[in-house]
Amino acid sequence: MKIYSFKQNTGKSIQKFNSQHVSIHPLLKPDEPFQIGYFYLEANSVLGMHPAMCDQLLMITSGSGWVRVEGEEKIVVEPGMAVFWEEGEMHESGSEDGMTAIVAEGSRLDPERYLPTN
């Protein structure tokens, strides 16, 4: 058995897209384009507007925050909610009080197959 840490202070800080107070722990990066990671969005954070490099599913695990696509208003998200962006879709996310989330990125994501919509 091995014990690993994915605490906030050991994550990789995200600086691209004018992002502030966001870190990630990439958990899976196989040869095929697919990644799973764990995000920490601190209080007053923003992961700046950027295109989805592939399909992305953001699953909120704690705290609360917001998401939006280019040209649209912010939508509040909380634990138990998942947000799906298609490849190329311009989007951003953030949190006033802090939020954590699992992110899955890859070309074969199909959340409609497994998750009910709100």
From TrEMBL:
This is Cupin. InterPro entries: RmlC-like_jellyroll, RmlC_Cupin_sf. SUPFAM superfamilies: RmlC-like cupins (SSF51182).
